């Protein structure tokens, strides 16, 4: 009888969780770690498409500066598992409301149930259609100066205009090098922006950009429409950023527009307009670096746990008041296996 009971409990735990974390990057794993340490049943579903995969290292992360992004994630997964959390590969197709929780359906996987949802799926960088650009992304084609500025310090840097934010990007990279060229790509500059660039010694290059010039697996310049090549050692570009959030449509949660793309709106704690759903990392904060995303994941997890504690307390009070109610019997059946798992 004891063996049979253990098998049933294990099966229950593999399909029902306190929190399902969608996304296994810095934000998702940090949130899962916090929740696992709070003794919550946690499942991380990770599609395996980290935004920073092309980068050689994660920078600005205290004590881990320069760590390979893949190594950082491997460490994070191991830490979550050390505290009993589960991390599995899987891309979520749909999420629907089910009573007071959620049903999460991974592509080709087994449907699982969650009391709460933490979405940390990040975003997709939509780059200009320019030959050579995508292949160099994360290497010598860059976006964030705080992530890569030190690595291209004192080099010849080009900034490809994609919109008004590109001027700000050029002024930022000017902090790391005095050789910055702004490729306008026929996008008009306001008088104010032109004055700012001139004041900081940023050279404006007008005309069509047709490709990046590559030699020996290194970027060496920007090819113009007239065939000339402007020598550059690195290029910065501000992509359009699209939140990975299509699977939330079934909950009525749609990405909100942003000048740089789209994001999932939330309050400062990560709580969305859909009850029971939190977000953390780049899916809601387009500018978040790894350190900020990880902190947001931990903060959102603490809020989720507090929300669950409040719900558990309400149920316990209800059971105390009416120990024979149908709801109490159902909740006892749900909570006892978790207690036994921890030896209580």
Automatic annotation (TrEMBL):
Catalytic activity: [thioredoxin]-dithiol + NADP(+) = [thioredoxin]-disulfide + NADPH + H(+)
FAD/NAD(P)-binding domain boundaries: 17-297
Ribonucleoprotein in keyword set: no
One Pfam family per UniProt: Pyr_redox_2
Lineage top rank: taxon: Bacteria
Flavoprotein found in the keyword field: yes
Record's keyword terms, sorted: Flavoprotein, Oxidoreductase
Protein name: NAD(P)/FAD-dependent oxidoreductase
């Amino acid at each position: 009888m004891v063996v049979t009971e253990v098998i049933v409990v294990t099966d229950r735990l593999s399909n029902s969780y306190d929190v399902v974390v969608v996304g296994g990057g810095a934000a998702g794993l940090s949130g899962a770690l916090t929740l696992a340490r709070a003794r919550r049943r946690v499942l991380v579903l990770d599609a395996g498409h980290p935004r920073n995969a092309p980068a050689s290292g994660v920078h600005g992360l205290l004590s881990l500066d320069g760590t390979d992004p893949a190594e950082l994630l491997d460490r994070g997964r191991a830490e979550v598992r050390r505290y009993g959390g589960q991390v599995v590969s899987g891309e979520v197709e749909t999420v629907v409301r089910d009573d007071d929780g959620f049903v999460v359906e991974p592509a080709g996987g087994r449907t699982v149930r969650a009391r709460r949802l933490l979405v940390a799926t990040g975003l997709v960088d939509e780059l200009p259609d320019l030959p050579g650009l995508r292949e160099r992304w994360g290497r010598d084609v860059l976006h964030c100066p705080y992530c890569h500025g030190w690595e291209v310090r004192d080099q010849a840097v080009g900034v490809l205009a994609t919109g008004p934010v590109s001027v700000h990007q050029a002024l930022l990279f000017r902090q790391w090098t005095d050789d910055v060229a702004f490729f306008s790509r026929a996008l008009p500059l306001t008088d104010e922006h032109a004055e700012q660039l001139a004041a900081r010694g940023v050279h404006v290059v007008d005309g069509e950009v047709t490709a990046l010039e590559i030699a020996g697996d290194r970027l060496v310049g920007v090819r113009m429409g007239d065939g000339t090549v402007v020598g550059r050692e690195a290029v910065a570009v501000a992509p359009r950023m699209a939140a990975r959030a299509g699977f939330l449509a079934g909950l009525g949660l749609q990405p909100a527009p942003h000048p740089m793309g789209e994001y999932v709106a939330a309050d400062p704690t990560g709580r969305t307009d859909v009850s029971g759903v939190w977000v953390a990392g780049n899916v809601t904060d387009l500018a978040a670096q790894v350190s900020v995303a990880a902190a947001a994941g931990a903060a959102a997890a603490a809020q989720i746990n507090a929300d669950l504690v409040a719900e558990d307390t309400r149920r316990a009070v209800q059971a105390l008041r009416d120990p024979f109610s149908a709801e109490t019997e159902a909740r006892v059946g749900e909570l006892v296996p978790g207690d036994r798992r921890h030896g209580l």
